[in-house]
Amino acid sequence: AEADVYRLTGERLDRFGADQGLPSGPTVSFAQGADGRLWAASNAHGLFVKEGERFRRVDAEGLPTRLVSSLRFDSRGDLWIGTANQGLYRMRDGRFEHFGPAQGLPDPVVALTIEDANGDLWVSTSTGISRLTREAIDAVAAGRAARLAPIVLGKADGLRSLEGSGGGFDP
Q: Mind listing the pLDDT tens digit for each residue in 28-39?
């Protein structure tokens, strides 16, 4: 079926689809946590986690959007969830923390996230690439700061395109 995804482990090929709880339609991102659980993102149906032999939807537990575009675990074990309409969420200790335009993220469309060696997060959006320092992220999450104050890279910084939301060319 068109919505099925496959995982090759050694010589074993596992299929995951509707029978295992994944939604119909494209699954756009996967991430595996340190506990071995597999997480899946759908840009129409939300966030899913594999528990046992089945996936279950998690977004009903505090993630207010089903438009999930990317997943990444960082070096601290936090799950970063990029969305197509509300910015970025961090799932830490089972709760969701939101970082969107009101917190200083320049755009609510997040396509990709990458953690650098310093623990800072680089975020690709439809308006370029932003660097969020770990200190700023933690300060906003703890209420010690209102805004992230990211460094934002655009065309003036050498990007050929600002579009980083998977629309054909990522900077």
A: 888 999 999 999
